[in-house]
Please model this.
Amino acid sequence: ISVSGHIDLGKLENLDEIDGNIRITLNQFQLTSLGSWVDYPMNLLSGQGDLDIKIDIDQGLLKSLVGRADLSHLIIKSKDDEININYFKGLINFEKNKDLSLIEINDFAFKLDNGFILEDVKLKFGINNAQDLESLFLSINDVNLESATKIMPYLPPKFEGLKKQVETISAKGNVKDLVIKWKKGDDFFNGLNLNMQVSDLSTKPFQGLPGIDNLNATFKIKDRSGSIVSKSENLVFTKLDTFREPLRFDQISGELKWKDNIFNIINLNISNTDLAATLNATYKESGQDDEIDLQISIPRSDISGLKEYYPIKIGKEGLNWLDTSLLKGQAIDTKIRLKGKLKDFPFIDEKNQPEPNEGVFEITSKIKGATIEYGAGWPLVENFDIDLDIKGSQIQLTSSSGHILNNQFKLFKGKIASFADNQPMLQVDIVTDSPINFMLNAINNSPIKQAMKGTSEDMKGNGPGELNLYLNIPMKNVDDITYEGTYTFNGSSLENPSLDLPLLTNINGQLLFNSQTVSIKNANATLLEQRLVVSLNNKNDITLIDINGSIGDELIRSKFGDEGSKRISGNTEWHAEFKLKEKESEFTLTTDLNGIAINNLQDFNKESGESIPLTIKKRSPSDGRDYIDISYGSLVNAKLIRGKNNKINQGFIGINTVPIMPKKGVTLVANLKNFNTEDYESIFKDLTGGDTISKEKVFDPFIDNAQLNFDELIIESNKLTKATVDYLPTTNGLKININSNEAVGSITYVQSNHFYKAEFEKIHLVRNINQKNKKEEISSVDLMVVDGKKIQVNENTNLIDMNINSFKVNDVEYGKVSLKAHDNKEGIVFDDIRLVKESNTIRGSGYWNSESFPQKTSLDFQWDVRNIGDTLTGLGYPNLVDKGEATISGLITWDNGPSKFDSQDFYGNFNLIAKKGNVQKISPGITGRLVGLLSLQNLPKRLTLDFSDLFQEGLPFDRIESNETIINKGILSSKAFKMDGPSAQTLMNGKIDFINETQDLYITIRPKVSDTATVGALIGGPLAAAAVFIAQKILDDPLNKITTAEYRVTGSWDDPKEINLESNSGAAGLIDKAILNPAGKVINTTGEVIDGLLIKPSQDLIDFIFSPNDKPKKN
Model:
């Protein structure tokens, strides 16, 4: 310690009068050691360093102090904490005036142990006698504000005001070139002169000033004026009394100037990913009369990102609508103008009209590709191009593009008369181009659906239409929308399967609706090409739909086809009514069918002028079931209950009876006099469109049990009398029992393996006989092709197994029949079919293509005949052939179902081999005349001797053979027919027409006359016989050559024409007239022999292979 100086003191006890100066030099001293000499302004706990001080004392008081300090490891005790100063350096100058103490520090360096550092600081401040700060000068080259604030808690209590302000502002960032000049005034900012550059500056809002983050700017402040010039990135602006949340800007540049209470924003350019804007504004703060003059130009903005920019002044309801409604879109060329006193915002008169004398609030913008939700529960407006125009409190929205669920706008006008009203209302006028399918989708996704009372929920439709809709949307409760409008049908179509509303087409008219009611007045429509008049209205909570229409010939033909229109014809009126309540509906259709004639439908027949009421009712209460009643006069009575799964699970159908309602399932009971399936088949085929049931569908029959009673039932032209058909369900399928005079048996279906089993004790059919016209022949190529195409059996294929103990058609008994088959997508494949009798067996395979048009049936068969005579007798041709056996095999096809066949329908080919039989003498009649055409029975009469043991009555044969015989729709043709018998050999080729009963045949007959007995008989005696026998041997059997005859037989069966073709005459002159004359007689009669005993038996044999004896006899 070094102390020097001088002191003037009169008396030691008068220290308060001391004068003088003292220089004190301290090196590496402890500051606390001076505690007895120096009254520190803070509680100094420790510290050390060097100190060089010059002190002037006047009248016992410190007058000035000049010195240099280089201190370290200072610890100062504050109220709640300690401050640790690593080092403290600088030049100190202290002057004490009467009322003010001035402290100046130069070349100041300061470091706290928390990291806060100050270098090259100049500080000068004045403190009055009350130790209040009177002035301040501060110059700092670089300082971190967040570190600087950490020193504030250690300032003396007199700095509490400053500390609170600094704490409230919570400044962060870096400050360069800071120069602060401050002199105490009315408030903190009076007397303030500040210049600095800040980077990454952040402050909290303070005394009306906004909070900021990430500000880079140059500050110039003098008293109550100043400027801030900024170019910042990621700037955040917080002023929660103006905006609901902080504003964030990717880039911002511009200048803020102020003087006193007037603030100017000059060319503030903002660039965000969702916004680009230029802002100029003047703001005058004056308590209750704050004024603003704001101009904003926004070249582009994403409207979904503008929520943070909406000023609070718009109001809670308006802000809520903007937040939840503007979901997507780009606003371009947006202009915002706000001028006037904020208390007068939005500057309107008592009529909500703009008041220019008070101020201006205008916003204009063009929005492209917007998506807007204008109310909860309403569908979105999408791809919306809209012009926004706000003046005062009025908002105008106009557009002609965009859509609501594909309903394209033709016109859109929205208006809020005043968003400043207590109950601001958005009014919207919409006109859309709305095809009915798009319109229905929009209705069912909007509150309008409720007003439709359930009519639109399952509605389907197509066709053009136009919607006019007017909406009132309260901005304080956007869910409480009211509306009214019209929808114009322009040739549209509609149907609703859940309400059993059929397809209505060509609808023209208007649907009127509002929040409470829906109505249609006399709209026109078409149902199945018939004109309708449709009306709809609400009555209390019920919606009524009335439909009036007619049934005519065109409708009947379109639904039932040409065949059906032959049975049902005429015109009649009908009326239908729908009653709809919430979750309930009722449908009634009535007509008296006056004007409709029904014929050839047996019990259902009626005259055109006869009135028979037809009524269909369907009630659908809230339990989810449908109760259906159907009546047709007294003939049909049906009650059905349809469950929630849309399946009818209980009810009955009665025809000429009223059954008892079953506990479950559907019962059908019918008592009918006459029923021909062919009459109804054409109707139901056209009614269903000819669709077949997919094998993939689960077996689920509509009828659970049925009893059908018929006086006469005709199935495929087969008559059953006193017939009862019982249908019974089983645990895994169904069973049908058939009992009639002609057929007794059952059919069982097992669902698990798709198996049909038919067991019949008998089927004795009585067929109606119809003459047919000749059909077009099939080409020879098709006749020889065996169609073996079959579809692979899959897991859903139905298998068929049928057995008939006794099968009979008219008077022809076919014996036992068995069939094994399966179906495929084209029809039925016959895997094995057999007809077994004692005298013969037919077996084969084939297919029935039931899904083609025309249908086609084909059989690949073999007929094993053990007794030809008995077989022909069983087929209705007795006494034609005695004994004999035969095998016939081939392929035949006909263009119809299996049960609809006739010999004149067949085309195909077959082979025939017959043995060891005798064609007997034929009785007169058609058959006799045909067989007698070429009868060999006359041959023995031409013989001169009696050899009855050789030539018996009739024609015995050893073998008959015909290969590749072709049958082509009633025409039988062969090129290789051969019959060998004891008396002759016959060869034949040509055609026989069964339909026109004609023939064109070439026949060669070779009588067997070359043995000696025959020679003797021909010549007339043994002597001549011996001579002829010698000649036979010498001349190489000339008799057989001579007696061979060739014929052509044409004409009809009743009047055949025989042409004797030229015979072989190579041996002429070798035998005398005794041989030639008898031979000529044999030749002359050969035609009759072949005609009687060959042609007709062959034709009959072929005919009866394929067809019962159902042809009418000719007189």
Observations:
- The chain has a mean pLDDT of 80.
- Residues 625 and 645 are 9 Å apart (CA to CA).
- DSSP finds 14 helices and 57 strands in the chain.
